[in-house]
Amino acid sequence: MTDNSDHREWDMEITASSSLLDLKLRDVWQYRDLLYLLVRRDVVSFYKQTVLGPVWFFAQPIITIIFYSFIGNLAGISTGGVPRPLFYLAGTIIWNYFADCLTKTSTVFKDNSGLLGKVYFPRLIMPLSLIASNLIRFTVQLILFVILLVFYSFKSGHITLNIYALMFPILVLIIAAQGLGIGMLISSVTTKYRDLAFVVSFGVPLLVYTTTILFPLSEVYTKYPAYSWVVEYNPVTAIIEFFRYGFLGEGTNDWWLLAYSVAFTLVVAFAGIIVFNRVERNFVDTV
Amino acid sequence: MSKVIKVENLSKAYQLGNFGTGTISRDLERFWARLRGKEDPFLKIGETNDRTTKGESDIVWSLKDINFDIEQGDTVGIIGRNGAGKSTLLKVLSRVTSPTSGSVKLKGRVASLLEVGTGFHPELTGRENVYLNGAILGMRRAEIKRKFDEIVDFSGVERYIDTPVKRYSSGMYVRLAFAVAAHLESEILIVDEVLAVGDSEFQAKCLGKMGDVSVGEGRTVLFVSHNMGSIRQLCKNAILLNNGQLLTHASVDETLSLYLKSNIANGSLKDYKHQGPLANMITFEECAVNKIVNKEAVFAPSEELSVSIKYRCTTVVPKFRLSLNFYKDSLLLFTLHNKSWPAELKASEYQDEFTIPAYLLRPGNYTLGLGGHDGDPISDGREWIFINEAYSFAITNEWNELNDFSGKGLINIHPR
Lengths: 287, 416
Hints:
The structure holds two protein chains of two kinds. In chain A, helix 9 packs parallel to helix 14. In chain A, 71% of the residues lie in helices and 1% in strands. Chain A has one domain. Chain A is mainly α. The relative contact order of chain A is 0.14. Chain B is α/β, with parallel strands linked by helices. Chain B has two domains: 3-10 and 67-261, 3-Layer(aba) Sandwich (Rossmann fold), CATH 3.40.50; 265-395, Coagulation Factor XIII, Chain A, domain 1 (Distorted Sandwich), CATH 2.70.50. Chain B is 24% helix and 33% strand. Chain B contains eight helices and 19 strands. In chain B, the strands form four sheets. In chain B, strands 6-7-8-4-9-10 form a six-stranded mixed β-sheet, sandwiched between helices. In chain B, a hairpin with a 2-residue loop joins strand 14 (317-328) and strand 15. In chain B, helix 3 (126-136) packs across helix 5. The relative contact order of chain B is 0.11. The A-B interface holds A 9-16, 31, 33-34, 36-38, 40-41, 44-45, 48-49, 114-121, 192-193, 281-282, 284-286 and B 6, 14-15, 19, 23-24, 27, 91-110, 112, 114-115, 118-119, 121, 123-124, 128, 131-132, 135-141, 164.
């Protein structure tokens, strides 16, 4: 028996259901300091009790491109005239960012069930903090890429940077939204049914071979035109291609491919948010 | 006074058992029912939550149609047996999980403390964790900065503040964690049994701080505890839950006495382990203090305590006398006997009473050991029987000229 005046008095109402698209963005904004501190925690705890500290952020991509260069040489895969380390690094850092966002987000409920089960804060903070702390790793790796790019530019006396490089921030945004969206979808399902977690753990490393990290898209078109759709359907392909095109002058600036990737991102991010929103209210009971 | 919490028809159902293929098909059925705008078919068959009986369905109502209002500045204790729904209620109120039906309306900022040190990262230093934990509990960074010195001061771990918390002792960890929580600025504070950890000195400090909070700042506090002593000390009113339903919402004394009387079954000593050669001849049946048999009883220092013991002897025991041990924190305080010399015990039922004067026992938790043997004051007994922790109770803090806090020691005696 509450009249309207009484209704306005309450600051908050907890009920069984809420609207699907209510993202509680105002809450998220209020907790922005938590977002900052969680990112700080992730970054700081990564290199605590190590001697070399943040240098370890470089180790993984360097070792990866050394191996890729070796294998690429051995198999004689073309890189479209780009120096191998530069070519592989471009693909690797983009892919790593995508894969890290996806895998970390896909286990967000499970990994933090202790925390999320004991205290309320907007749940969206948690995946957002993962995206942000991975962005810091990504930036560190990007510095490595820039150093390598400058080095090879001096060596060859040829500057490959062009106007397409300006698209870089948009590309990062798309890749982050992809990782976040897919990750949120998976994390929501795995609160109750853990099956998808297994698919992620072996599937993501395999997907490396379905995008243009180890080979240029042009190579796929010439050698395996019948199977090129596999690579094209991977939404990361367009991002890597445009990134390489802007910085290295090699790649495919196929706008249709990018449009597909953007459309895919929108659908996935939208679905991810809806499902996440639905699950976040009660996942504590089932996780 | 205005209402700050209004709970209406609140219910929460849980699903028991494992999740597997069976639950998938059921989830689909529920989804289909929802699509057609029908009621969830699986919630209709739910039953009340009594963990001791085996139910028919695997849906259980952890909370069922709970209604209550709480006024601003009130301190409310939530009591009930294990599994009565206390923690679920707190979880719903603090928005960790959402109700199955019904609603909760809240006024003002809610801070909940279902666990201390939530989100502490072992690799980070005390300082970093204070910031992180504060932010998790809903504080802004500027706010934590302002209160930082106060928090460290309250915790008493200043020397270690720049050391990773993984090197802390568990006590230091809890102190720091509670210090953060105690400095939350919220209109409503929800506290689960977080004080079970930590030494008694620090517990008293925390209770004091929570008391300050509600009296001094007009804050509303909801408090779950199994320690009836702290409930009585801290709360004005109390809510009694049983099997997910609300039984009473009244003053703390009224609710506590109802609760203590309601669980008669808990008072039976028949299931207790009787040790010693006489165990098959004598059985202790009941131990009650001031007629309360529940083992979570709480008494004020001003109450005279009358301990009554019922026991049964099945055959003739040539020599026997009953003894009653009082322990405080596992330390034997004193022993009382029912007679000065052992005497023959015929097969029959017996009841003995012991009276402890008011103000003799200082505030704290006590346990009683119950036994007897054939030894007299000058010789050791050979035939004996004993049961541990036959009863436990708490004496509350209550200042009185006869119970001066500055007097120290185990028991309280006044020269006449």
